[in-house]
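Input record (one chain):
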Amino acid sequence: MDYGIQEDVLVETDVQEELLDLRDLVVLNDDYNTFDHVINTLIRVCKHSTEQAEQCTLIIHYKGKCAVKKGTLEELKPMLDAIHDAGIGAEIQ
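The corresponding structure, as predicted from the sequence alone:
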């Protein structure tokens, strides 16, 4: 027999993110690097598609920064170093 009882279930959506301690790799805008250099660096280092790298580069230019990759500190640190080696400002947040 159905008594019309409704049960609400709360789902924690950020559980996996909290367990893995995911962070953002953020690339910063500057007045020195060309669009092509930043695009090529994102393709090479972050394995972005051409379209994704172009979109991120436009966001960096117009907003001043863009989170280009999400991952653990151990995953992002080598990417951060490679971006810095390319002469581009970036940080892990």
